[in-house]
Amino acid sequence: MKILVCISHVPDTTSKINFTDGDTKFDTNGVQFVINPNDEFGLTRAMWFKEKQGASVDVVNVGGAETEPTLRKALAIGADSAIRVNTPATDGYAVAKQLAKVVNDGGYDLVIAGRESIDYNGAMVPGMLAGMIGANFVANCISLEVDGTNAKAVREIDGGKETVSTTLPLVIGGQKGLVEESDLRIPNMRGIMMARKKPLTVVEPTDANAETKALSFEKPAPKGTVKLVDADNIDELVNLLHNEAKVI
Amino acid sequence: MSILVYTESENGKLKKAALEVVSYAKAIADQMGTSVTAVAVNADNAETLGNYGASKVLLVKDDSLKAFNAKKYAAIIENAAKNEGAKVVVVSSSANSKYLAPLLAVGLDAGYVANVVEAPSSVSPFTVKHSAFTNKAFANTEITTDVKIVGLSNNSFGLVDSGGSASVEGFSPSIPDSGVTVESVDKATDKVSIADAEIVVSGGRGLKGPENWGMIEELAEVLGAATACSKPVSDLGWRPHGEHVGQTGKPVASNLYIAIGISGAIQHLAGINASKVKVVINTDPEAPFFKAADYGVVGDAFEVVPKLIEKLKAFKAANA
Question: What is the pTM of this model?
Answer without folding.
Answer: 0.93
